[in-house]
Amino acid sequence: MFKIFPIDGGVCAPEGFVADGISAGLKKSDSEKEQLDVGYIFMKNPCKVCAIFTQNTFQAAPIVYFNQFVKDKESNFILINTKNANAMTGERGVSDVREVMECLIKKYPQIKNPIMSSTGVIGVYLPKEKIMESLDKITFENKDNFSHNRAAKAIMTTDRYEKEVAFEVVLQDGKNFRIGAMAKGAGMIQPSMATMLCFISTDAKIPEQEAQKILESCVQKTFNAISVDGDMSTNDTVMLMQSGLSQAYDSVAFEQALLMVMDKLAKDIVADGEGATKLVGFRVSGAKDVFEAQKCAKALSNSLLVKTAIFGCDPNWGRIASTIGASQVMCDANKLSIKIGGVLVYDKGEILFDVQREKLASTQMQKESFMVECDLGIADGEFTAYGCDLGYEYVKINADYRS
Amino acid sequence: MFKIFPIDGGVCAPEGFVADGISAGLKKSDSEKEQLDVGYIFMKNPCKVCAIFTQNTFQAAPIVYFNQFVKDKESNFILINTKNANAMTGERGVSDVREVMECLIKKYPQIKNPIMSSTGVIGVYLPKEKIMESLDKITFENKDNFSHNRAAKAIMTTDRYEKEVAFEVVLQDGKNFRIGAMAKGAGMIQPSMATMLCFISTDAKIPEQEAQKILESCVQKTFNAISVDGDMSTNDTVMLMQSGLSQAYDSVAFEQALLMVMDKLAKDIVADGEGATKLVGFRVSGAKDVFEAQKCAKALSNSLLVKTAIFGCDPNWGRIASTIGASQVMCDANKLSIKIGGVLVYDKGEILFDVQREKLASTQMQKESFMVECDLGIADGEFTAYGCDLGYEYVKINADYRS
Q1: C or N terminus of chain A, fewer CB within 10 Å?
Q2: At what residues does the UniProt record annotate the site feature described as Involved in the stabilization of negative charge on the oxyanion by the formation of the oxyanion hole (chains A, B) (predicted)?
Q3: Residue A125: closest CA among chain B residues belongs to which residue?
Q4: Which among A89, A234, A314 has CB closest to B322?
Q5: Which residues 215-254 on chain A approach chain B with CB closer than 8 angstroms?
Q6: Could you tell me if A241 and A297 lie in one domain?
Q7: Residues 116 to 145 of A: which have CB under 8 A from any B CB?
């Protein structure tokens, strides 16, 4: 057996990683002081970086650049800028990425095949001069114990707090490896499609053919529970960098730890959704299969009427039932059961919603986090999607001019 | 050729129809005066009533009742109640409908195979006693010139105003017929799934095999432009009653007039969307086919980020582009063009969004109604979906306890 326990250090926790946040003046307005707006991760020994990108047809320029020039090569550097997505910018966008990357290589010969990642406004050309000027601030040793945290801060957009995590995995033979990560989200993700970025570092020594497969499997169970492939922003990215320096590896332990990393960050992203006050899990069980369970769970987590009812702490189970019925999955009112915050309100055709249960459920809904459980009673497909409520703050953030 | 012109009278404009709104005390709280909450339409000579219902798996009890007991029979009466959807109420819900319908027949022998339609909260049993007590107020002659308007008022829920329309069609040979209708909507429809009801009356003499077909074709072009089949409430209903008393008919003229009736009501429903301040048309052209155009147009009209940008009068075309790219239709950034309120902001890979155009587009967005036009430049599929903005008022209405 193996043991997994949380450690400090974020993306710099595994051996061989340097990260920091710097300022390129992207977030700066005339009256404000400089803020961190460009983050980077450097890995001492280059390796193939695994990546999963948005399914949006209009992939942003840095993604196009990665697929054209970096994929399948060994790389050791990721540069992440905020305030500008470099999306819908055509060939000029891609050549802007290339220019910034060439500037990096020219300045720092230790950088191999650098990767760029961007988040921010769509349809505006990259402020590449500002970014290139900031590159002088890059260092190749961690300056202090907070550099990983500055990197996580630098990639934030409307996020209210930085999102970091790290675990140490101790294998049965006493060997150990580490996984660290940082992410940004803050939009309500699907269906609002604010960009989700996640960068994972590890010193585990993963067989080359396994890394991408495990990454995909874990994304499916975590980030895809908060965001549908086809409904992503132009920039969504999950990347895994592996230094291999621990010389240790166990596929079951690694997958488990990676799942924990992503699960934590995915929940952080939902809980930090724009204007969100609550994290809600929608567990659908008893579906025809896992795909129908997923379809139904996501329909619930995306329903405007369900989201606003949650904001109002109203255990309005009729809206939940109606959303299930509209989600086009196999279901039957006489087999369906619905629990809100553990309180059974509808059971196989029977309405159990009396004043007492209503009060109880409403009290549960006032918590920061609770579950909505729907058993379709058809077969054994199961999926849990995470969502948040929708309140005034969401409208405020997104109706504000050019947020 | 034929002529179509608007007339007064709503659902009572065609010959042979009686309608009114009465009060069953459903909307009444102790302190308030009685409000109209039950509407009815009576047709002097029974005929087969055409109907299109929600695709929601959990169809409400009145729909189940219609399909079991009324469909294919001649009918002459529709009773519509508010405040209670009679949905998720199982067999008891259906037997409650039957009880109310039997009470109607017993009281009034002139009523044949009456139909019920409901809108309101889901998952609460029908207050059938209150409704049955109110049936004594039914009359079989129009009391005055406002009875059609009282019927339209009675079926309102969160609607801010009643939705009625009527047209007279004069054929080339001088014969004429009329179409009238009333509707309720007010939820933001898809994706929030508030119930949409529409009742249409006509004295045209439609060949039996044609009526249902024309009704379906017109729904596809109108109500389905504001609402996807699979994403409807438990109660959505469109019904067509035909008295045949005019003895006149022309299929092209009838279809045109019916389309005008539904188009008017569909736009009224969107413009009266909960908390809506603007009606926006999303015209997608140049799509691979009409289905892809529809998919893309609806994705735009449902995007939370697009809806909130519209509320904020922000011509944030990047959100529009990102939504198109995420909608999984065939598209290409180098072929796409986007116009907001007639202002071209992106043209086949070229970003035209300068300060002047931005200002111009933002000014257009301050209007009560404007178009977002996206030419995908692939082939000639075209569809226009209608949507509205999402502001604070929507959250207020829907977060209020048990709205």
Answers
A1: N
A2: 119-120
A3: B351
A4: A234
A5: 230-234
A6: no
A7: 121-125
Highest mean pLDDT among A237-241, B305-309, B324-328: A237-241
Give the 3-state secondary structure of chain B: CCEEEECCCHHHCCCCEEEEEECCCCCCCCCCCCCCCEEEEEEEEEEECEEEECCCCCCCHHHHHHHHHHCCCEEEEEEEECCECCCCCHHHHHHHHHHHHHHHHHHCCCCCCCEEEEECECCCCCCHHHHHHHHHHCCCCCCCCCHHHHHHHHCCCCCCCCEEEEEEEECCCCCEEEEEEEEECCCCCCCCCCCCEEEEEECCCCCHHHHHHHHHHHHHHCHHHHCCHHHCCCCCEEEEEECCCCCCCCHHHHHHHHHHHHHHHHHHHHHCCCCCCCEEEEEEEEECCHHHHHHHHHHHHHCHHHHHHHHCCCCCHHHHHHHHHHCCCCCCCCCCEEEECCEEEEECCEECCCHHHHHHHHHHHCCCEEEEEEECCCCCEEEEEEEECCCHHHHHHHHCCCC
Q: Of A216, A242, A271, which residue constitutes the final position of a domain?
A: A271
Backbone angles phi, psi at A280, to 5 degrees: -120, 130
* Last residue in a domain, options A243, A271, A299: A271
Q: What is the pLDDT of residues A87-144, one digit of tens each?
A: 999 999 999 999 999 999 999 999 999 999 999 888 899 999 999 999 999 999 999 9
A277 known member of a binding site: no
Instruction: Flag whether residue B189 sits within 8 Å of chain A, measured between CB atoms.
Output: no
Residues A65 and A91 in one domain: yes
Q: What is the pLDDT of residue B401?
A: 52
Contacts of B361 in chain A (CB under 8 A): none
Shared domain for B259 and B289, answered yes or no, is no
Q: Does A402 touch chain B if contact means CB atoms closer than 8 Å? A: yes
| Residues A173 and A59 grouped into a single domain | yes
CATH number at residue B306: 3.10.20.340
* B294 to chain A, closest Cα gap in Å: 16
Which stretch of DSSP H or E encloses residue A252?
Answer: helix A251-271
B249 and B375 inside one domain:
no
B195 is catalytic: yes
Structural domain span for residue A198: 3-271
Question: What is the ipTM, given to two decimal places?
Answer: 0.81
Q: How do strand B163-170 and strand B3-6 relate by DSSP bridges?
A: antiparallel
Contact A311 B402 (CB under 8 A): no
Q: Say yes or no: A147 and A61 in one domain.
A: yes
Subunit contact B321:A123, Cβ cutoff 8 A: yes
Minimal CA–CA distance to B41: which of B11, B63, B13?
B11
Q: Same domain, yes or no, for B234 and B318?
A: no
